[in-house]
């Protein structure tokens, strides 16, 4: 469960907001475990190996999962399970760029953590010290809602039609549009089709209840997300911005010292 460390969260949110003004909204959320391991231990070695696998594999596939140190002779405490996933419409070369950045940032955000996850606009990395693969988790990680357009009945109808279409992405990734309303949805690759449908149904339910009649809305659950917007609301994401990521890194450097609580960073409109 993700908890807030108030001072650090406020500091991080300020920096994320600045990065949003500089370029696109690339950073979404991250969370780290309270438990830490010691440097120069098998846990550190295994985690570094896992993160290296993420980087090397992402140039070949948009999703992969791995388990390291889980053989019978290894300590269960040093075992690490992890996955990465890129948005389903990315090219592998763009996926590789995103995963490389996510791995770098999760290392800054979650030093020596047994568990961690970090979501960027186009990709996610997650690791745990237990086998979490295929376990349905619909806990809310992030939500963002724009201004309301409650007077526009036609927009709400088209929005609901798009969300119904996005709820059918039980094979992983789906894009939908209806008139001027667009959106996409995605499940993590470790979910089976039934659990993917359940996760998307929960995400859509939360999106409607939290964002109501917003012109645009995002809901990220632990294993799926749904996003919609009015045409033209978002500009096309630019190429990965060095200055934007440097701002995120500064925030994470400031937050990592002495912080052991898990927390979720939110930027709600």
From TrEMBL:
Ribonucleoprotein found in the keyword field: no
Domain annotation Gnk2-homologous: ranges: 25-132, 133-233
GO-annotated cellular components: plasma membrane; plasmodesma
The organism's place on the tree of life at top rank: Eukaryota
Membrane-related topology note: Single-pass type I membrane protein
Protein localization: Cell junction, Plasmodesma; Cell membrane
Pfam family, one: Stress-antifung
Main location class: other
Assigned keywords, A-Z: Cell junction, Cell membrane, Disulfide bond, Host-virus interaction, Membrane, Repeat, Signal, Transmembrane, Transmembrane helix, Transport
Family stated for the protein in its record: Belongs to the cysteine-rich repeat secretory protein family. Plasmodesmata-located proteins (PDLD) subfamily.
Protein name: Gnk2-homologous domain-containing protein
Species this chain originates from: Lactuca saligna
């Amino acid at each position: 469960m993700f908890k807030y460390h108030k001072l650090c969260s406020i500091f991080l949110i300020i920096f994320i907001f600045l990065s949003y003004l500089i370029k696109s909204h690339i950073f979404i959320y991250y969370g780290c475990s309270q438990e830490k391991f010691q440097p120069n231990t098998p846990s550190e070695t295994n985690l570094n190996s896992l993160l290296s696998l993420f980087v090397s594999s992402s140039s070949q596939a948009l999703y992969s999962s791995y388990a390291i140190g889980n053989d019978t002779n290894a300590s269960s405490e040093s075992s690490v399970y992890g996955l990465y996933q890129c948005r389903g419409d990315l090219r592998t070369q763009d996926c590789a760029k995103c995963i490389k950045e996510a791995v770098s940032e999760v290392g800054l955000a979650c030093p020596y953590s047994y568990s961690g996850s970090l979501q960027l606009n186009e990709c996610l990395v997650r690791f745990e010290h237990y086998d979490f693969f295929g376990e349905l988790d619909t806990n809310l990680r992030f939500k963002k809602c724009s201004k309301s357009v409650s007077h526009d009945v036609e927009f709400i109808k088209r929005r609901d039609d798009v969300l119904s279409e996005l709820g059918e992405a039980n094979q992983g990734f789906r894009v939908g549009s209806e008139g001027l309303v667009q959106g996409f949805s995605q499940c993590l690759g470790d979910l089976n089709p039934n659990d993917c449908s359940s996760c998307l149904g929960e995400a859509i339910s939360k999106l409607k209840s939290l964002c109501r009649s917003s012109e645009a809305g995002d809901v990220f659950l632990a294993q799926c997300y749904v996003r919609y917007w009015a045409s033209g609301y978002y500009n096309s994401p630019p190429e990965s911005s060095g200055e934007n990521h440097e701002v995120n890194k500064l925030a994470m450097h400031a937050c990592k010292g002495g912080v052991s609580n898990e927390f979720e960073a939110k930027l709600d409109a």
